[in-house]
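Re: [ENG-882] Designed sequences occasionally contain unexpected residues at chain ends

Forwarding the minimal case from QA. Structure tokens:
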């Protein structure tokens, strides 16, 4: 675990302690540079040069850029970072016409062992610190500003299981809301179904969105696809989601990776629709065509079958949409993040 205190690890009060003896307006300038402008100390020309150099030494960055890969259409950017200790994580920036979304990692690797996910195939290394999480967002925000886009949404759907690192994830959410100025309703935390994390989220003060990576609606299949289901089976997961809804009254999203012949059959749709109806507010289902990973031989459903599955869900009273895959050719799409898996397509920039 890293012991170095980095620039996004410190709170505003802790920054004031680091800059002890410095006028308060200087603390404000540094904080604005970090959170309003998302820039480096070397860019802060309103501070003395010696102070900038001292800040860079006292509060180094948490992330060292390894590569930056850009999709063929230029609308998806994947960052590969190296952390203190040598672990690597990835962040994805998705650019739209007038805005941007950041998909952020919360762990180096993942212990959930979902076989169809490249991160799960890689295993778990460690939790990320608050600073490592927040800096991903700051660096991606800076990149978005370079092309005149504003980051409007952040999703905790990158590497790792956010609810397994809940306290640090939540502190990063508070920074997003309080210091980056992002609405809590534009922040989504995903989980494969860690019930203690879902219940903790219900008690937290900000109304962020909850997404559950479901992928199967019966315990036998879900035990195989999402092994944590053996500890927290579907009935218990539904109960936890209902407890969350009783507090938040905001619908839960179910993520469903479409796997050919595995969870895309008519009976899978019927079981999923039944689970959706058991919630206080019907869940919204995001259908995701399975993206290819080297460690999982099964194919994703055809796009035709994905749309048929959606139509069947809707005929059964469930609300469903098909998520557009972005960045598949640079291994930046859902389930593909592996922190260094070779990229064979797309454009890559190496620092």
């Amino acid at each position: 675990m890293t012991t170095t205190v980095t620039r996004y690890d410190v709170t505003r009060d802790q920054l004031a302690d680091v800059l002890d003896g410095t006028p308060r307006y200087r603390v404000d300038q540094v904080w604005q540079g970090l959170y309003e402008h998302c820039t480096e100390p070397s860019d802060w020309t309103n501070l003395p040069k010696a102070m900038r150099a001292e800040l860079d030494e006292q509060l180094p960055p948490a992330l060292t850029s390894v590569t930056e890969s850009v999709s063929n259409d230029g609308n998806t950017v994947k960052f590969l970072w190296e952390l203190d200790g040598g672990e690597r994580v990835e962040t994805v920036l998705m650019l739209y016409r007038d805005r941007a979304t950041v998909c952020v990692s919360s762990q180096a690797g993942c212990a959930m062992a979902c076989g169809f996910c490249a991160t799960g195939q890689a295993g778990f290394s460690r939790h990320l610190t608050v600073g490592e999480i927040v800096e991903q967002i700051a660096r991606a925000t800076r990149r978005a500003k370079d092309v005149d886009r504003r980051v409007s949404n952040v999703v905790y759907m990158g590497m790792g299981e956010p609810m397994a690192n809940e306290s640090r994830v939540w502190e990063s959410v508070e920074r997003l809301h309080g210091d980056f100025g992002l609405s809590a309703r534009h922040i989504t935390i995903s989980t494969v179904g860690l019930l203690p994390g879902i219940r903790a989220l219900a008690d937290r003060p900000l109304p962020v969105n909850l997404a559950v990576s479901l992928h199967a609606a019966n315990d036998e299949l879900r035990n195989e696809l999402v092994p944590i289901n053996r500890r927290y089976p579907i009935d218990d997961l539904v109960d936890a989601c209902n407890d969350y809804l009783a507090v938040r009254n905001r619908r839960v999203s179910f993520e469903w990776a479409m796997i050919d012949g595995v969870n895309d059959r008519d009976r899978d749709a019927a079981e999923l629709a039944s689970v959706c109806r058991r919630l206080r507010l019907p869940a919204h289902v995001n259908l995701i065509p399975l993206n290819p990973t080297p460690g999982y031989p099964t194919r994703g459903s055809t796009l035709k079958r994905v749309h048929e599955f959606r139509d069947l869900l809707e005929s059964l009273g469930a609300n469903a949409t098909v998520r557009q895959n972005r960045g598949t050719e640079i291994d930046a799409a859902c389930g593909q993040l592996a922190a260094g898996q070779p990229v064979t397509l797309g454009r890559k920039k190496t620092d």
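QA comment: On inspection the terminal residues look reasonable. Residues 130-146 form the longest helix (17 residues). Proposing we downgrade this to a documentation issue.
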